[in-house]
Specification:
This protein is an alpha/beta fold and 117 residues long. The chain has one domain: 2-Layer Sandwich (Transcription Regulator spoIIAA), CATH 3.30.750. Helices cover 31% and strands 33% of the residues. The chain is built from 3 helices and 6 strands. Strands 1-2-3-4-5-6 form a 6-stranded mixed sheet. Helix 1 packs parallel to helix 2.
Length: 117
């Protein structure tokens, strides 16, 4: 996936953005910004790429993500549930709120591994 950046519409209006770039050395992407209403379509494309890819492990580096809304968390879980057996998403350094949501609502989902390192 090439670099993708999305901002809320409107000339000269600063707003939510999501930047996505490939990770070097492994299958996956580095994501920065906010995962919310204005950037949800970008997040959905990222997750679709992860599901369609052939990697047994797909990395989502989220250390520069500042916010994930409930729809973004739900989309992550839905993507993980569509993975073939034995495949998984490794979510690296997600925002604390996303970690809590995953631990609370989906504690035993084997297709998502949360890594804090």
């Amino acid at each position: 996936m090439s670099d993708t950046r999305h901002r809320a519409p409107g000339p000269g209006i600063s707003g939510p953005y999501l930047t996505v770039r490939p990770l070097e050395g492994c299958g996956g992407v580095h994501v920065a910004g906010e995962i919310g209403l204005a950037t949800h379509s970008i997040w959905e494309r990222v997750l679709e790429q992860a599901v369609r890819g052939g990697e047994s492990v797909y990395y989502l580096e989220l250390s520069e993500v500042t916010f994930v809304d409930v729809a973004g968390a739900g989309a992550l879980v839905a993507a993980a549930e569509r993975l073939e057996d034995g495949r998984r998403l490794v979510v690296r350094r997600p925002p604390q709120a996303l970690r809590r949501v995953l631990e609370t609502l989906w504690p035993h989902l084997p297709a998502i591994e949360v890594s804090t390192s």
